[in-house]
């Protein structure tokens, strides 16, 4: 019962995170079209969120002594790396292609769990990843304007690897007796990411006066500060907080697939708020992403394993019936899905 409630809460948080992250592009695009450099928008996003989370960082300052590697890794990979590599990649290859490559991360997460951590993954989770990535290809219309640019593709792949870092590091230490508070990890990750992006974006060259004006959103003038506030508070602070906690409640592989919904949400919001209409393949692709995410989430075991698990190869328990052999590896991770004190 408690495990089921934990999964439901985790799924809700993952969906909230996908919605918050998905809304960033809709708010950022009018600012970029108004004259702000994309890297400056990224810096404003991360630096603003770091400023908001500064009191939280002070409250959890003990993390600097306990988990310095985790904080640096989260700041470099989950914050600065994902943002910088993605924006660098879209300067060389189409946005749809870059987005698809970045969201190969769920598949890479499964590879990390299976071959690095040497933990079994369910067939349903793998199927969910395949469906989600295939549907995502339709949503972003990867076939339109594809050009081969090795550097651009490598940059997008680097963004995907950093995305893996986000999911893996979000789950780091979740099974320890004295867990690293996820909110504190996010606060320091944003601070470290802001420092790194300051060097990359060089915000002292930014035209700050643009923030006092308005930006066009499908024919409507919207204050630039309002859009920036949405990007900082909703698309960054809320998105990271709900995203990291959802990984703790679910698992990196399941949360990674649900995160693919970000592309669907971003496309729908762009349709509603920016007038960028969807066509039939995009609508079908969005439905496929939903199906893939649902399959991966529903494959999470419902209860922890009771009793020993025999065999070094991840086989079924000693008392298993022959018809349980296929399901036993799926249950090895069951204990990780129960709610944890965060």
Could you explain how this protein is built, in words?
The chain is mostly helical. 66% of the residues lie in helices and 2% in strands. The protein is built from 16 helices and two strands. Strand 1 (214-217) and strand 2 form a beta hairpin.
Could you give a quick summary of the protein structure above?
The protein has 342 residues and is mostly helical. It has helices spanning 2-22, 24-33, 38-52, 54-59, 63-66, 68-89, 95-102, 105-116, 123-139, 150-170, 182-201, 224-249, 252-258, 261-274, 280-298, 328-331, and strands at 214-217, 220-223. It has a two-stranded antiparallel ribbon.
Regions with little confidence, pLDDT below 50 for 5+ residues: 300-342
Structural class determined from secondary elements = mainly alpha
Number of strands: 2
Order of helices and strands: HHHHHHHHHHHEEHHHHH
User: What overall form do the CA principal axes indicate?
Assistant: globular
The portion of residues assigned to helices is 55-70%
Q: What is the terminal-to-terminal distance?
A: 19 Å
CA-based gyration radius: 20 Å
Q: Roughly what fraction of the amino acids lie in strands?
A: under 5%
- Count of DSSP-assigned helices: 16
Strands of the widest sheet, in order across it, are: 1-2
- Overall mean pLDDT: 75
- Sheet bearing the most strands, described? 2 strands, antiparallel
